[in-house]
Amino acid sequence: MSEDNSSKENEVCRLCEQVVPAEKFETHSIFCLIGNQCAIKITAIDEKLFDIINELAAAIYAASCYYLKGFVNMTSSEVSEDHLILSDVEFEIVKEIHKKLHQILKIHEFNLYSIDTLDNLATELETLCNSRINVFQKPLQDIVHFILNETSTKLAQLRSSYGACTILLDEDPFSVQSNEEFMEVAKNSFSLRYSDVMPDAQDFEIIKPISKGAFGQVFLAKKKRTGDYFAIKVQKKKHIFRKKSSKRVNDEHKILASTANPFIVKLYYSFESDDNLFLVMEYLPGGDCLSLLENLGCFSEEMTRVYIAETILALKYLHSYGIIHRDLKPDNMLINKDGHIKLTDFGLSIVGVQDYIPLELNYDQSKPQLKTRREKAFSCVGTPDYLAPEVLEGTGHNEAADWWSLGIITYEFLVGIPPFTSDSPEEVFENILHKDLVWPSDCEISKEAKDFVEELLQRNPSKRLGMKGEGAKEVMSHSFFQGIHWDSLLEQTPVFMPKTDNKEDTFYFDDRSETHKSVDINLNSFNLTTNSPNPRKFSRRRDFPTFQFRNLSHLAEQNTSIARERASSIAPNSSSLVEIPPKSRACSF
Asked: Mean pLDDT across the stretch 261-278?
């Protein structure tokens, strides 16, 4: 931050984006994380109850034969046999249940008064239902039991989350004094309507384009409310649909949203407009390893060893959840501000062992020969140089394909070019399948490094390093990594530290930006607004059902960093900082 944190009167919470007095920021952050986690669970409950409300409304309409204000507006032709049919006895009581449900769904605030209100409504609803449930038909009985169960779950979730917050004040969790203290810290930051804090394109200031992908482009952007910088990947829906890649895009989002590892790029938000999908990720100012390699020619063994070691830790994490990256290459190995590697671009990633999947290699032989490796990389979805033999042969593949790609990258780092590269994809494929690995005579490379690469580039996947029974452990145990301290890689002095003038400096991406301009990609080609003037509208939620997303764990980490920085500026030797407990996160596959 540009100013001394100890002198700042207020901070912006990254979770709720409310301005919070600096002295209350740490406590607020803990409360806010618990509140947001509660909001996600409550939202899921409310969505199910909302569906029930619609079903009851349809039944009431069908029974009353006239439109009731506040219910779903439907014509008689829309009433089908699938709708609940009410008897005369059920009709009046269902109207009361419907009314109570509307009141329950209106509870959005996160405080003791909401809990008391919901508790009273739950009691009234239970009394109402239990008094007549024996006369209900079986379908209505099932609905009533579901309503009571979900309402009880919502109440329990509110009580649990509120109690977890207020108990930190060392008071009786449900005392009036504790509630007043809670409200003083939290103010009005909490809302159980999770959508209230979902971002959209209007929340970001687009600074400049920094790279291009298969379906769109990546921009450096600043969040207006917090001033934080991000890399926003904007993907055009029309390109996704034209290439029938909705599943691939959804899979990439699922992987990014479900992973939490220091060597994998962080996804903070995602959302959609009528025309575009947006992935808001951390901005890594050091550029990618291909750019660095092109500048240096090749890497030293020490530099190679560290970068490959960090990549192995990322692959170890991914493979433990059954994720195969499938597009591992220097372009997708980014360098953060501290000089450490982060894997990105999961657009070709898959989960589990795969049978034959046809490659998407988009190159046009009628076009002039491409000149640079960067341009050659743009020409393919699935860059030929790094593909494993079994992928090319279509015999099915697993995580062994990633270990092959790692061997190609290691060779490239040490020598300067991939071992099987050629002028055309067909020649590259032929080399991968049949050409012997050759080491240049003018490069001084240790026998340990050569052996490591050769063990990874075994054409038989079962004989490949990493596939002999112990996975990443056997790769990490190779003699090439002697001296590597696997548990403290992040604490070691980086082999390359990016130097930037300011937070908007994209020096390490500038060469890529020039390449993008040469292929007619520019900011004006994207409609970054939420409401598109384009009359052709693409379906939201149906095609991309999980794209409205906020990563609470990563946002909580931002709050922790702010609180830690403030604590250290006030009392440098203090060790009393309370850690904001980000939700334990793992892949949900």
From this structure: 95
**In the beta sheet, which residues pair with residue 334?**
288, 342
Rounded to whole angstroms, the Cα distance separating 327 from 348 reads 6
Of 437, 444, 351, the C-alpha closest to 399 is: 351
User: In Å, how far are 14, 210, 390, 582, 583 from 30, measured between CA atoms?
Assistant: 12, 35, 49, 9, 11
> Which tokens go with 87?
């008897």
Architecture of the 199-284+515-547 domain:
2-Layer Sandwich (3.30)
Would you name the residues annotated as active-site residues? 327
pTM of the predicted protein model: 0.81
The C-alpha atoms of residue 568 and residue 489 are separated, in whole angstroms, by: 24
Predicted local distance difference test score (pLDDT) of residue 183? 65
pLDDT of residue 343: 97
What is the tens place of the pLDDT at every residue in 471-505? 999 999 999 999 999 999 999 999 999 999 999 99
Pairwise CA distance, residues 147 & 47, whole Å: 12
pLDDT at residue 299 tops 60: yes
Of the ranges 253-262, 357-366, 463-472, which one carries the lowest mean pLDDT score? 357-366
By the 8 A CB rule, do 77 and 111 touch?
Answer: no
The strand pairing partners of 282, in sequence order, are 230
- Domains 199-284+515-547 and 289-499 in one fold: no
Task: Give the residue-averaged pLDDT of 6-21.
Answer: 82
User: β-strand 229-236 against 323-324: which pairing, if any?
Assistant: unpaired
CATH of 289-499, one of 1.10.510.10, 3.40.50.10170, 1.10.10.60, 1.10.290.10: 1.10.510.10
Q: Where are the domains of the chain?
A: 5-195, 199-284+515-547, 289-499
Residue 480 has which token pair?
């090439």
Closest to 386 (Cα-Cα) out of 353, 335, 345: 345
Name the band, by pLDDT with cuts 50, 70 and 90, for residue 540.
Answer: low
Q: Strand 350-351 relative to strand 229-236: parallel, antiparallel, unpaired?
A: unpaired
Cα–Cα nearest to 512, from 362, 383, 339, 334:
334
The structure tokens listed for 148 are 């009571």
Name the residue with tokens 């605030």: 109
User: How far is residue 485's CA from residue 316's CA, in Å, rounded to a whole number?
Assistant: 16
